[in-house]
Amino acid sequence: MCGIAGIVDECVGNLVDATSIHAMCQSIVHRGPDDEGIFVKGGAGLGMRRLSVIDVSGGHQPIFNEDKTIWIVFNGEIYNYPELRRDLLSRGHKLSSNSDTEVIVHLYEDLGAECVHKLRGMFAFALYDERHHRLLLARDRLGKKPLHYAVANGRLIFASEIKAILAVAPELTSTRPDALLQYFYFGYVPDSITAFRQIQKLPAGHLLEYQDGAVQTRRYWDLPRYGTYSPRSEEECLEQLQEKLTEAVRIRLIADVPLGAMLSGGTDSSTVVALMARLSGAPVKTFSIGFKHADFNEAPYARMVAERFGTKHHELILEPDIVATVEALTRSLEEPFGDSSMLPTYYVSCLARQHVTVALSGDGGDEAFAGYERYRIHLQDRAHDWIPRWASQLYRQQIHSRLPRQVPGRSLAYSISLPWEQRYTEGVSFQPFQREMGVLCPDFVGAGESGGSPLREFYEYLAQAPADDPLGRVLYLDTKTYLPGDILTKVDRMSMAASLEARVPMLDHVFLEWVTGLSSEWKMRPGSQKYILRKLAERVGVPKEVLHRPKQGFALPLVHWMRNELKDLILTVMLEPRTLQRGYFNPRGVRRLLEEHFCGRRDHSPRIWRLLMFELWQRNFLDRFGAADSEWRPALSLREKTA
Predict the structure, then answer these.
(1) Which of 156, 296, 363, 469 has the largest CB neighbor count within 10 A?
(2) For residues 516, 518, 523 and 524, what is the CA-based torsion angle, rounded to 10 degrees?
(3) What is the pLDDT of residues 517-538, one digit of tens each?
């Protein structure tokens, strides 16, 4: 696992300075504390920070081909590299190391950019072809590893994290209102945009080629069609599922450093640990955290799984300095990020890093097997589709706005009146809350919507999804948006903040393609979500007490913190003139939000958290760069223009 960075000029004669590449690398040392490597020649410079996992002594990067005309920096792991290496050697290639990175260079010699189709793993890499002065960027199929880029002043600048780009181009801190509005809607900024006007994310499953100043991006992979395969029996389905998931776990046990697993005590991570225990010759090292608040302490369930499979279990019951942690994390996050589960993910990563360098996790199971509660709610809501369209439109256009906010069922009636696609996308967005509370400034919302609704791309994913049934369509949507934008971003940033490599076997692309093809009946049935995965968990010995309990993941006592440890920070930060004068928030809406929450009338913890993370990002990250437009200023009115 590494952090990569680099600069390629459109003209080979415009030299890239090695000190610039070094500055980029220094900003991401946490991603690779073990080693630094830099290659600079003519108009190209590549750099990397390395966390040594495979071929610890011989895998120094950048790595090159036999005549040193092709160079690569690589972040991730290629799990099928032993087979690829043997094939390359049989065809006459000369490899100088036993690293997975080197095989990509030689695959590129044979296949060009199409070499990505041979790779099984998680990756983001930059490959420079000196003969053609061409840069190739590639990101893995699901977006496990990040890759950002910007084109400025005739150069393409790329890096694993935005802060490395800003280290050499601080003038790129200009923000874009549509991206910031999308953050408020979803709690993250979806691919392919970022919070910054000139910086982009390379989307999951995409390639980028840069040559002669021109950028070309294209998709090289997508999910197959949903629901094309239904096994003849449950036993057949379980046998195939166990075989394929076992293989995905097995190939992720390759490492030359200590390895373990993050164990939340839920179905997904418990199943991964069960399979690891079967494959390992020694007890699996497992890691879990808990909190003293009983309602949010999953440690007993994780302990139960650890005892069942004889793991070497490490458990930490936390009493964290939550204010200090929030301040520290918002200094490191380059974009606003509103998923509060980043806190337990960070804590468990720190715990694991004390004992191992690599840890497997159960992430991805919910998107693959329909584990989120919203899928069940979504299907139930479709029972209201019998309501005539004219009646639904009449309610939204004529009745809803005239009803007092206190009327019970007002918001539910609005949701029921929508077509199911809009009902689902509204359910995963901030839009209904903004409609009710008006927390965001209308001028900012108007600027953010000037190019179209923040939900537009979500509707497009639903429309183009390779699925005939609603469940398949929403699973596709979430795999394209929520998974890379929230879940995998959280896992990557929090694990890398602790210099820990996280591996996610349920997002092995070969395994996921098979799961995607399973018909919906194997994923969700009345009263049972993740149906076939739970059956597999039972089959491999996961305790039933773990499987038949409410879903929590790495839960945390956010409501308690909001009304206690974080209360002073919230009130101080959110009501300061500095915050309210930026122009993002409607002061009246913010005050009403805080009053309702702290008076106990409604629990607004998730919404307040999202607003707080935004303002702390402004202060702790963006303002450090002296960004000229770190405040939103609406366009001048006609009277102001003529004054």
Answers:
(1) 363
(2) 110
(3) 999 999 999 888 999 999 999 9
Whether residue 62 has a cis bond before it, omega within 30° of 0 = yes
Query: Which residues partner with 585 through β-bridges?
Result: 440
- pLDDT of res. 561: 85
Which distant-in-sequence residues (6+ apart) come within 8 Å of 600 by Cβ? none
Which is nearest to 450 in space by CA: 176, 178, 174, 175?
Answer: 178
Q: Distance between CA atoms of 28 and 9, rounded to whole angstroms?
A: 22
Helix (H) or strand (E) holding 410: helix 410-416
First-to-final CA distance of the chain? 57
DSSP H helices in 498-581:
509-517, 531-539, 544-547, 558-563, 567-575, 577-580
In degrees, to the nearest 5, what angle opens at C-alpha 47 toward C-alphas 167 and 139?
Answer: 95
The residues that are catalytic are 2
Are 287 and 550 a contacting pair, CB within 8 Å?
no
Q: How many helices (H) and strands (E) does the chain have?
A: 30, 19
pLDDT level of residue 452 (50, 70, 90 thresholds): confident
What beta strand segments (E) does 455-505 contain?
501-503
CA 29 vs. chain centroid, Å, equals 20
What pairing do the DSSP bridges indicate for beta strands 312-318 and 285-291? parallel
b/e burial code for range 118-142 (CB count within 10 A of at least 16 → b): bbbbbbbbbbbbbeebbbbbbbbbb
- Average pLDDT of the chain? 89
pTM flag (> 0.90): yes
Mean pLDDT of 290-309: 85
- The amino acid that residue 613 corresponds to is M
What is the rounded average pLDDT of the residues 454-469?
95
CA distances in angstroms from 346 to 150, 288, 320, 491, listed in the order given: 28, 11, 12, 8
Given phi > 0 = left and psi -120 to 50 = alpha, else beta, which region is 583? left
Q: What local confidence, expressed as pLDDT, does residue 384 receive? A: 64
**pLDDT at 626 exceeding the cut of 70:** no
pLDDT of residue 378: 73
Nearest by Cα to 414 from 388, 435, 439 = 435
Q: Give me the pLDDT at residue 550, please.
A: 67
Measured CA distances, 524 to 254, 325, 421, 608 (Å) = 33, 38, 19, 33
Element holding 103 (H helix, E strand): helix 100-111
Q: Are 3 and 38 in contact (CB under 8 A)?
A: no
Q: Which two tokens stand for residue 400?
A: 């809803």
| Beta sheet of 214-219, edge-to-edge order | 63-64, 70-78, 121-129, 134-139, 206-211, 214-219
Give the integer Cα–Cα distance in Å for 107 and 117.
10
Radius of gyration over every alpha carbon of the chain, rounded to an integer in angstroms: 25
In this structure, how many other beta carbons lie within 10 angstroms of the beta carbon of residue 309?
23
Mean pLDDT of 621-640: 54
Parallel, antiparallel, or unpaired: how do β-strands 134-139 and 206-211 relate?
antiparallel
